[in-house]
Amino acid sequence: MSSLDLERKHAEDLQRLSALRLLDDDFMNKVFEDKACAEFLLQIILQRSDLKVAQVHVQHEVKNLQGRSARLDILAVDEENRVYNIEIQRDDRGASVKRARYNSSLIDANITEPGEQYEKLNETYVIFITENDVLKGGRPIYRIERTVQETGESFGDGTHILYVNAQIKDDTALGQLMHDFACTSADEMHYQILADRVRYFKEDAEGVATMCKIMEDMKSEAARKAEREKAIKSARAILALGKLSYEEIADSLELTVDEVKALDEGKPA
Fold first, then answer.
1. Which of 6, 31, 90, 268 has the highest local Cβ count within 10 Å?
2. Residue ranges of the domains in the chain?
């Protein structure tokens, strides 16, 4: 690649970076991998100034009982061993009620050890921060808890689901937080702790280099995913003809034999 091409590519990366907001999940992940920022976020959403985060992980991979993996945007644990999954969703489909249920079950399945008593299950929170008002009630936040319908009392199983509506940017602490999530410039943000972190990734040479690398990795991953989807589509078409073996299809499309066989058997590749 020529120096001119490199300069143009770098300029494009900087332009993309300047437009990123905390509502963009990859940028949000980098900002909130900082423990202090994750703690601040949870304190405002849950109205808990005493909450202290002990550890935080971004893009944390978990598996269900069938071995299928999923990535959680942010997984944090506080000093009381409560577990928090925070997800950013700009697409309403990614914040469906079944997705919230699934994430909650994944956390339960991955924080218990064989032989542990159910009573030792951690208290868990699944929190969706959504660009749109997914639940369409005009509320800034929705708290979902299991209750006994006949008495109205809490079921008390320790699971909590919250939806934060980023559409509402009023003068409350949560509204100001959602304002900051929509900002592209640190100078426009209310909260200094978040502004400093955003400024680092957008203005500091080291932070900018980190984000540019992440954006390049994202583009490469998207290209690999597109190629794989194309190969799977071609494999299905060739399988339908019934003229080539699994090995021949796998070799020609750079898939494994097991992947081709799974496609023929109607399983996910």
1. 31
2. 3-203, 219-264
Distance CA 85, CA 1 (A): 41
Start-to-end Cα distance in the chain:
35
Cα 29 to Cα 86: distance, rounded to the nearest angstrom: 10
CB 39 within 8 A of CB 147: no
Between β-strands 159-165 and 141-144, what pairing exists: parallel, antiparallel or unpaired? antiparallel
pLDDT tens digits for 210-251? Answer: 988 887 877 777 778 888 888 898 988 898 888 888 888 988
Nearest to 263 by CA among 225, 227, 235, 231: 235
What six digits make up the tokens of 119?
Answer: 């009573």
What lies within 8 Å, CB to CB, of 228 at 6+ separation is none
Amino acid at residue number 26: D
pTM score, whole prediction: 0.79
Instruction: Give the Cα separation of 106 and 77 in Å (integer).
Output: 15
7 is written with which tokens? 């300069």
Q: Are 129 and 141 in contact (CB under 8 A)?
A: no
Task: Provide the angle, in degrees to the nearest 10, between the axes of the packed helices 192-203 and 35-46.
Answer: 140
Is the CB of residue 31 less than 8 Å from the CB of residue 194? yes
Q: Name residue, tokens 């081709």.
A: 260
Cβ neighbours, 10 Å, residue 196 = 15
CB atoms within 10 A of CB 214: 17
